[in-house]
């Protein structure tokens, strides 16, 4: 059995916060505003994993009303989500993600992000593909007001099927 999940997240850019994407701190004059570190890439990945497993969304598992998750390093949430996925007999086949940001340029960080995210799930980083694009100046993201990410995952059952 295989299952597909899709995740999306967006947060506003503000001064005075670190910019964390894919678990990596990116040098930039603004960071993402949120209850946790607001890592849109990791949040989108968590939602994609949870969706593929039929387990709801990140807000159900880690509500922003819970002070335990205040300023939480989202990569730790990804580790926990993946542990929960595995406990359901599922494993990551691959993840494909896109970050939407007018700035900063993210090319130099894509591999580091994939390695960090893969490490948090104890999977080969080659199972994770990260892309970055702009919105060509259109909308709030194009004006530099925020950053968004979208992620799709494919999970497979780790339980043997009949005949194996």
From TrEMBL:
Function: Involved in the biosynthesis of isopentenyl diphosphate (IPP) and dimethylallyl diphosphate (DMAPP), two major building blocks of isoprenoid compounds. Catalyzes the conversion of 4-diphosphocytidyl-2-C-methyl-D-erythritol 2-phosphate (CDP-ME2P) to 2-C-methyl-D-erythritol 2,4-cyclodiphosphate (ME-CPP) with a corresponding release of cytidine 5-monophosphate (CMP).
Protein's name in the database: 2-C-methyl-D-erythritol 2,4-cyclodiphosphate synthase
Cofactor list: a divalent metal cation
Residues given in the record as a divalent metal cation binding sites: 9, 11, 43
Source organism per UniProt: Desulfosarcina ovata subsp. ovata
Pathway the protein acts in: Isoprenoid biosynthesis; isopentenyl diphosphate biosynthesis via DXP pathway; isopentenyl diphosphate from 1-deoxy-D-xylulose 5-phosphate: step 4/6
Pfam families linked to this entry: YgbB (PF02542)
Cofactor note: Binds 1 divalent metal cation per subunit.
Annotated keywords: Isoprene biosynthesis, Lyase, Metal-binding
Principal EC category: lyase
EC number of this enzyme: 4.6.1.12
Gene3D superfamilies according to UniProt: 2-C-methyl-D-erythritol 2,4-cyclodiphosphate synthase
Record family assignment: Belongs to the IspF family.
Family annotation (CDD domains): MECDP_synthase
Coiled coil start-end: none
Stretches assigned to the 2-C-methyl-D-erythritol 2,4-cyclodiphosphate synthase domain: 3-155
Transition state stabilizer (site feature) positions: 35, 134
An annotated GO BP: isopentenyl diphosphate biosynthetic process, methylerythritol 4-phosphate pathway
């Amino acid at each position: 059995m295989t299952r597909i999940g899709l995740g999306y997240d967006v947060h506003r850019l503000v001064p005075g916060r670190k910019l964390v994407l894919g678990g990596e701190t990116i040098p930039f004059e603004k960071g993402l505003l949120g209850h946790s570190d607001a890592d849109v890439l990791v949040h989108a990945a968590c939602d994609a994993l949870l969706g593929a497993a039929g387990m709801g969304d990140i807000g159900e598992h880690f509500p922003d009303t819970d002070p335990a998750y205040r300023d939480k390093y989202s990569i730790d949430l990804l580790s926990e989500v993946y542990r929960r996925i595995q406990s359901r007999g599922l494993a990551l086949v691959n993840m494909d993600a896109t970050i939407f940001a007018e700035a900063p340029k993210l090319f130099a960080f894509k591999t580091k992000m994939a390695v960090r995210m893969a490490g948090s799930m104890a999977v080969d980083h080659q199972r994770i593909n990260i892309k970055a694009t702009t919105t060509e100046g259109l909308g709030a993201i194009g004006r530099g007001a925020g950053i968004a990410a979208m992620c799709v995952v494919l999970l497979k059952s780790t339980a043997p099927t009949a005949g194996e």
